[in-house]
Structures are given as C-alpha cells and as structure tokens.
Amino acid sequence: DPGRLVRRTQAAAPAERSDLGARLAALTPRHAGACPACGERTGRALYRAERKTYLECPSCGLVRMACFSARPDPYTDKSYFFEEYKAQYGKTYIEDIPSIRRSMARRLGIIESLLPAGFNAESVLDVGCAYGACVAEAQARGWNAIGTDVSAEAVAYVKENLGIPAFVGDFSAPGSEGMYPRKLAALTMWYVIEHFDGLGRVLRRAGSLLEPGGILAFSTPSMAGVSARRNIADFLEKSPDDHFTVWDPAAAPAILKRFGFKVQRIVVTGHHPERYRGIPDDPRSIRYRTMMAVSHVLGRGDTFECYAVYEGRKTGTPDTSGLETA
C-alpha cells in the first residue's frame, strides 16, 4: 500500500527539516584533511579514539587532532582560573601570580637578550594574557605591554586592577587583523598556541604584527617529553580536547621557518623524574636526582618554550641550535 507507506514515513520523520549537506559536513572531522602548518594532505595516525584522532604530519612533523566536535573553550569561563585551577595547583590563578611572574621574568629576560642591538620597539602583545602575569612583569621591566584574551573577566581584571591596556579577542578569528597593534618587539603566547584551530593563520598574523627582528615566544606541551615517550596513547588520550596541535621541539624550527621565523632558542621545561618507571616521587632520592639530571641532558621535559626571530619569508636550513633545558 504506497499511500500507507508514505503516511507512516511522514509520521516517523522529524517535525523540522534538517540540512543533509550540513549533517554530512558535521561528520567530517576537523584537520583530517590537511596539516594546519604546511598543508600536507596525509598523516600517520598516532592514536585513535571515538571522539578524536591524532595525526602526525609526514612533511613537517606537527601532530594535529582530528575531531568531530571540540569541547567549549573553558578559558572564557571564570571557574577555569579559580575552582579548576585551584583543584590542579592548590591555589587560584590570581593567588599563583607571584610565582608565575617569576617565570615571566626569566622568559622576558631571554626575549630581551635576543632582540637586535639598537632595537627601538619596546612593545609586547601577550596573547592569552589571562589575569595579567606576563603584562604586569613586562610593564615592571619598562615595556609597553598590551594583553588580549578570550575571557572578558580576565581582561577586565587586567585593565581595572593592574591598569594595563587589554582587550577581548580571539587571535585566530578570520578578518580581525585590525584589532591588534603592529610594529611589536615581541609577541608572546604562554600555553596558548595549542588551542588555536587555525594555526597557519595565527603564525601569519604574528609575523604581520612584529617588527623585523622582533621575537615570537611561546610555550606548549611537548611530544618529546617523558609522558609521551612512556605511553603515547595515554598521553594523547589525556591531552585536552581543545588542544588542536601537539608540538615536538625538534620539529618547531622547520615549521616556523615556513612563516618567516628563525628559531633562536628552545628551552625544555616541565621535568618530572617521578614519571619514569621505578623512580620515587621524592626529590631527596638519589634515583630521583639522577633521573632529573638525565631528563635535563636529554630534553625529556613535558613542556618547552620556543623563541624565534621574525625575518620574513626566506629559504635556508632551519637553525636548530640553542637547545637548552630548564
């Protein structure tokens, strides 16, 4: 009975029409087709799970996450910097600012040492400024510091409590170039670069804002650290679902060269001897101290910092010198 079949089908169908093309597009995981740094269309799967897959680019070595949907950005939520941060570190972000500023002092010292002699620009843009640890330290050192973040609450704190210019913005958003100051001496992203879906656009924008000779500095989790080497599946499974890329310090020079940057220094950080099998979590232990020294020598920290000078687009062999640990 064709009529009955049509009526039964209509009754079973959703009340509202849906777009089949949009539905099919939603089934295509992001970054599955091309590397966001070099455009390579293939990738070697390092880890597969129901919600995400990690692919290593055979051309540039960048590891990218292919996913069907990214979880909402937690950094726009005030609770991330307070309840969640305290649960992980024992104090809120604001309570931790003094120790963060000590790290920023070291990082800014490295940037200052890498700037060319006679460099006149003294401005720094901190992308993902949070509650202002970097811009506060930069201002104290005499820099013209500006912050930007996706969190409106964090930006308001920087402006109202620290008296430092800051504004709300997504650095990776297309067509937002006019929001950002130019002719910068430095552009920093501390544990931020991995959150950007459009990495290529971010690096091109960073270059467009820096003066020639200016420094791009960022920190990020490391694929070369003990956690990734010990158990790659566990490391990638625990990698936050809003980390779209995972970097290897050895691959960073070639990746950044594509966008006109020359790596000057890589500092390996986040050393955890206790994550090696058989090593007690006791800094007084001889085995702990021995493995700490080994981790520094081999660069097996779980995070790293990268400092690169903007030279504009040019060809040549990437400079991988300057590898150090901290």
What's this model, at a glance?
This protein is α/β, with parallel strands linked by helices and 326 residues long.
Question: How is the topology of this model organized?
Answer:
Blueprint: H1 2-12, H2 20-26, E1 44-48, E2 52-56, E3 63-67, H3 78-89, H4 97-114, E4 123-127, H5 133-140, E5 144-149, H6 152-161, E6 166-168, E7 184-190, H7 199-209, E8 210-221, H8 226-230, H9 232-238, E9 245-246, H10 252-257, E10 261-269, H11 286-298, E11 303-310, E12 323-325
Parallel strand pairs: 4-5, 4-7, 5-6, 7-8, 10-12
Antiparallel strand pairs: 1-2, 2-3, 3-9, 8-11, 10-11
Helix pairs in contact: 4-5
| CA gyration radius, whole angstroms | 22 Å
Q: Could you say which structural class the secondary elements and strand pairing correspond to?
A: alpha/beta
The biggest sheet, with number of strands, parallel, antiparallel or mixed sense and barrel status, is:
8 strands, mixed
Q: Topology as H/E string?
A: HHEEEHHEHEHEEHEHHEHEHEE
Fraction in beta strands: 15-25%
Key descriptive features of the protein:
single chain; 326 residues; alpha/beta; eight-stranded mixed beta sheet; 11 helices; 33% helix; globular
3D structure, described in words:
Helix 4 (97-114) packs across helix 5 (133-140). Strand 5 (144-149), helix 6 and strand 6 form a beta-alpha-beta unit. The model is unreliable at 315-323 (pLDDT under 50). The chain is of the alpha/beta class. It has an eight-stranded mixed β-sheet. It has a four-stranded antiparallel β-sheet with strand order 1-2-3-9, covered by helices on one side. The protein has helices spanning 2-12, 20-26, 78-89, 97-114, 133-140, 152-161, 199-209, 226-230, 232-238, 252-257, 286-298, and strands at residues 44-48, 52-56, 63-67, 123-127, 144-149, 166-168, 184-190, 210-221, 245-246, 261-269, 303-310, 323-325.
